[in-house]
């Protein structure tokens, strides 16, 4: 599904990011770029500029994450949000077409969301 593709993961909790990285690599991602903040992601921009997908933590008390996800989507990168905030499952203002998965994130749910999202935005 992700064969030969690059994926950006922006997750503030490193252990969660590592779990997502492992799942993405099992799905065939060639490169997974991990970042804990938009600033850190931008420091490594050259590594993910051509990413097929970005998985971004979305939390109501961190508007910079929502703004970053919006920028990625506007640049043409398929975005999937992940959140511990159960209200996010209903969508995020400013990110109307972005699916939001709730943590903890089962690998099967992530795989299905990626499959659907990439079909929408190849």
Protein model, in words:
- It is built from 5 helices and 5 strands.
- The chain has 122 residues and is an alpha/beta fold.
- It has a 5-stranded parallel β-sheet with strand order 2-1-3-4-5, sandwiched between helices.
- The longest helix is centred in the last third of the chain and has 14 residues, at 107-120.
- The protein is globular, with a radius of gyration of 13 Å.
Secondary structure elements and pairings:
Layout: E1 6-10, H1 14-26, E2 31-35, H2 38-43, H3 45-48, E3 53-57, H4 63-74, E4 78-83, E5 100-102, H5 107-120
Parallel strand pairs: 1-2, 1-3, 3-4, 4-5
Euclidean distance between termini CA atoms: 11 Å
Biggest sheet descriptor:
5 strands, parallel
The residue fraction in helices comes out at: 40-55%
Rg over CA atoms, rounded to whole Å, is 13 Å
Question: Beta fraction of the residues?
Answer: 15-25%
Question: What is the strand arrangement across the widest sheet?
Answer: 2-1-3-4-5
- Return the average pLDDT rounded to an integer: 91
Number of helices: 5
């Amino acid at each position: 599904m992700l064969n030969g593709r690059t994926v950006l993961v922006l997750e503030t909790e490193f252990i969660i990011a590592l779990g997502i990285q492992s799942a993405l690599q099992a799905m065939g991602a060639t490169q997974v770029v991990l970042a804990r903040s938009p600033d850190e992601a931008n420091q490594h921009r050259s590594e993910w500029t051509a990413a097929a997908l970005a998985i971004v933590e979305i939390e109501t008390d961190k508007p910079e994450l929502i703004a970053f996800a919006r920028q990625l989507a506007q640049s043409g990168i398929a975005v999937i949000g992940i959140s511990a905030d159960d209200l996010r499952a209903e969508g995020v203002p400013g990110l109307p077409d972005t699916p939001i998965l709730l943590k903890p994130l089962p690998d099967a749910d992530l795989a299905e969301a990626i499959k659907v999202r990439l079909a929408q935005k190849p």
